[in-house]
Design brief:
The protein is mainly beta. It has a single domain (2-179, 242-295), classed as Distorted Sandwich (Beta-galactosidase, Chain A, domain 5). The chain is built from three helices and 23 strands. The strands form four sheets. Strands 6-7-8-9-23-19-18-13-16 form a nine-stranded antiparallel beta sheet, with no helix packed on it. Bound molecules: 6-O-phosphono-beta-D-glucopyranose. 6-O-phosphono-beta-D-glucopyranose is lined by residues 75, 88, 98-99, 172, 196, 216, 248, 250, 273, 275.
Length: 303
Amino acid sequence: MKAMATIAELNRRFEIPGLARIDEGNGGLPKVVVTTAEAAGEIYLPGAHVTSWKPSGREEVLFVSAKSRWEDGVAIRGGVPICFPWFGSKQDDPKAPAHGFARTRAWDLQSVEKDGDSVRVTMILESDEKTKKWWPADFRSEYRVIFGRELRMELTMKNLGAEAVRFEEALHTYFRIGDIEKARVQGLDGIKYTDKTDARCEKMQQGDVLITAETDREYLDTPHAVELIDPVMGRKIGIANQNSRTTVVWNPWVKKAAAMSDFGDEEWRQMICVETTNVSQLAVDVGAGCKHQMRAKISIENS
Ligand code: BG6
């Protein structure tokens, strides 16, 4: 009842009839649902979490697990979780939530606007006592998602404090694919990576990235764009990044999938994460009063 009242209120402020409205999503959680001539998409307010993008005439591009838990304060398994202000476990505090607090906090819906044939959704997360419990910085993060023929995601962090801060960030995109054993990631040939499945050894990528076992890699100093080739779904997904110096590639494979309670045992076959990130030694430093913006643009064509 409370959620419905909130949704009615949000619609009074933000609905664009025929293009965007706020609905009750899975677990009763509020989401913005966008339907334009170019694409359909969804973003949940908890975590500012994009869960769907479907360009017109195409199949869904993002993977969301059928076993995802849909509860306030719990990360959705799939779509595009935002990892911030750390990635993975927090180095100086193993009890801190994995991948930071941004993906499990309620973000404030700031605006929903028509942008040509696309719809732009803007959400805000600001520091408060709860974020300071984990991380002392004063900050304001703004996340803009533009749903259209391309999916554009722009994460801006403004340091409101009097001192420089360092943080990690990720747009942890889960892509839906036909068959992991036939997919490949192009554009990382000759790039160094840290292999998280092998004691963080540094290795060099040779050729395309093929997934034949559990894969968890941080590619360092990555190029502006990579491509995910999916011959089974007959499509090529372009991932063009700005101000992102690392790219994480992750697939849990059999054992890890079975160990994850919010992930189906067989779902590893139909997903891969190719993540737009700044992590580990390439974390971001932002001076007092300064801003940093990381962007990802996802596009799709036939392969
Ligand atoms: C990836 C990490 O990005 O996310 C992996 O590189 C991690 O190490 C995976 O296992 C999933 O993380 P989580 O916290 O969503 O289970």
